[in-house]
């Protein structure tokens, strides 16, 4: 199991979801199927996005509202690719399988 701390230390992703340490409450529950698929997670460097990665996709959630932003399908699971995806933003990242393949080829 992985744990991830936001840069400001307010949020931590561990166990079944993302927790707000200031308010001591669960702010985003992660589905059990995500936990069963070797979930990894990270906060974007600017702290505006929480990204979860499973063996099949990357999902972006807007920090604060916790609304789902964009979901990207994975075609090649890779820890180095995960780091590069987290550095991007949902608007700048590919969404189709062809775009994902091109993204992986370039990175």
Describe this structure in words.
The chain is an alpha+beta fold and 107 residues long. The chain has one domain. Helices cover 22% and strands 34% of the residues. The protein contains three helices and eight strands; from the N terminus they run ββββαββββαα. A four-stranded antiparallel beta sheet has the order 1-2-3-4, with no helix packed on it. Strand 7 and strand 8 form a beta hairpin. The radius of gyration is 13 Å and the shape is globular. The two termini are 26 Å apart. The mean pLDDT is 75.
Helical/strand content category: alpha+beta
Number of domains: 1
Ends distance:
26 Å
Q: Based on DSSP secondary structure assignment, what is the total number of beta strands?
A: 8
Residue stretches low in confidence (pLDDT < 50, at least 5 long) are none
Shape: globular
Radius of gyration: 13 Å
Alpha plus pi helix count: 3
Name the helicity range.
10-25%
Order of helices and strands: EEEEHEEEEHH
Mean pLDDT: 75
What share of the residues does DSSP label as strand, in percent?
Answer: 25-35%
Q: How would you characterize the largest beta sheet?
A: 4 strands, antiparallel
Strand order of the largest sheet: 1-2-3-4
């Amino acid at each position: 199991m992985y744990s991830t701390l936001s840069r400001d230390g307010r949020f931590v992703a561990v166990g079944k979801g993302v927790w707000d340490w200031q308010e001591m409450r669960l702010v985003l529950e992660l589905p059990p199927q995500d936990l069963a698929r070797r979930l990894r997670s990270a906060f974007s460097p600017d702290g505006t996005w929480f990204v979860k990665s499973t063996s099949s996709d990357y999902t972006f959630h807007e920090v604060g509202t916790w609304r789902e932003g964009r979901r990207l399908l994975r075609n090649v699971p890779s820890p180095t690719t995960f780091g590069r995806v987290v550095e991007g933003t949902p608007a700048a990242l590919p969404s189709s399988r062809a775009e994902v393949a091109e993204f992986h080829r370039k990175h």
